[in-house]
Amino acid sequence: MGEEETTRIREWWVPRRGPRTLRLLIGLSFYPYSLMNASYVLIGSLLAPSVHFYRMAGMAVVYLLAVGVSAHSLDAMAPNRPWGEFLTRGQLEALALASLVPALAVGLFYALAYAPLLIPVGIAELFFLLAYNLELFGGAFHSDLWFAASWGFLPVIAGFVVQTDAVSIPSLAGGAFGFFTAFVEISASRPYKALRRGEGDESQVASKLESVLKGIVLAVIATAAFLLSRALFG
Predict the structure, then answer these.
(1) How many angstroms separate the CA atoms of 87 and 107, rounded?
(2) How far is CA 100 from the centre of its chain?
(3) Is residue 170 part of a domain?
(4) How many domains does the chain divide into?
(5) Is 71 part of a structural domain of the chain?
(6) 3-state secondary structure 196-224
(7) CA atoms of 25 and 18, how far apart (whole Å)
(8) In angstroms, rounded to a whole number, what is the distance separating the alpha carbons of residues 18 and 57?
């Protein structure tokens, strides 16, 4: 089988042209889903009664580093090597660590300076980052429900907490939005990946699932953009 059948280089967000290594790095970033994850942080922050925009931006960067780079680097070390062998295991571990350390440093700064409640949220997220992506504990946490809780619900809560050092009914409602949209995304993503690997009829079903994935990503980003524009321009 060729590279396109053994790696995820055909994913919809990966450029069709350009140097192979660059295309694989872009693919490894999962940038649409990483932006979706950061958008949850913005949504949580923008639900707060008053918004400190630098805290919101800093927490979004934390998630872009921790999830967009570190988590996806760990995920790329899976036995099936979804992005092939263009990076060694040592290089992936170094990339994961190089992004995770500054993410933890920024998160800890915000926790100590403004919002101690971020500490338990951060501990939970670090646990899920390792347990989900490395499939620890026999893969017990590598499920759709835990994915939605860790990368949908908790980022909204983190965004709200960094502003208020509290959890409220609106933040929990926002967290529910994060949970259910992330759940839809991962529920569509798994069969989509199977079809991309040739484990079924790939044509119309894969196309529809790809549309679902694009739609849910854009819906979350658009929600964050709407809330941000309302906060900025009234």
Answers:
(1) 28
(2) 14
(3) yes
(4) 1
(5) yes
(6) HCCCCCCHHHHHHHHHHHHHHHHHHHHHH
(7) 11
(8) 31
Residue 118 lies in domain: 43-233
Residue 210 lies in a domain: yes
Residue 165 lies in a domain: yes
**CB-count exposure of residue 146 (10 Å: 0-12, 13-18, 19+):** middle
Cβ contacts of 196 within 8 Å, gap of 6 or more: 8, 10, 11, 202, 206
Q: Would you give the distance in Å from CA 219 to the centre of its chain?
A: 15
Q: Measured between alpha carbons, how far is 181 from 171 in angstroms, rounded to an integer?
A: 15
C-alpha span between 86 and 62 (Å, rounded): 26
Residues 57/232, Cβ–Cβ less than 8 Å:
no
Going residue by residue through the chain, which has 234 residues, state the pLDDT in tens, using 9 for 90 and above: 445 556 788 889 999 999 999 999 999 999 999 999 999 999 999 999 999 999 999 999 999 999 999 999 999 998 888 898 899 999 999 999 999 999 999 999 999 999 999 999 999 999 999 999 999 999 999 999 999 999 999 999 999 999 999 999 999 999 999 999 999 999 999 888 877 766 555 667 888 899 999 999 999 999 999 999 999 997
What confidence score (pLDDT) does residue 1 get? 43
Q: Which amino acid is at 69?
A: V
pTM of structure: 0.93
Q: How far apart are CA 222 and CA 191, in angstroms?
A: 25
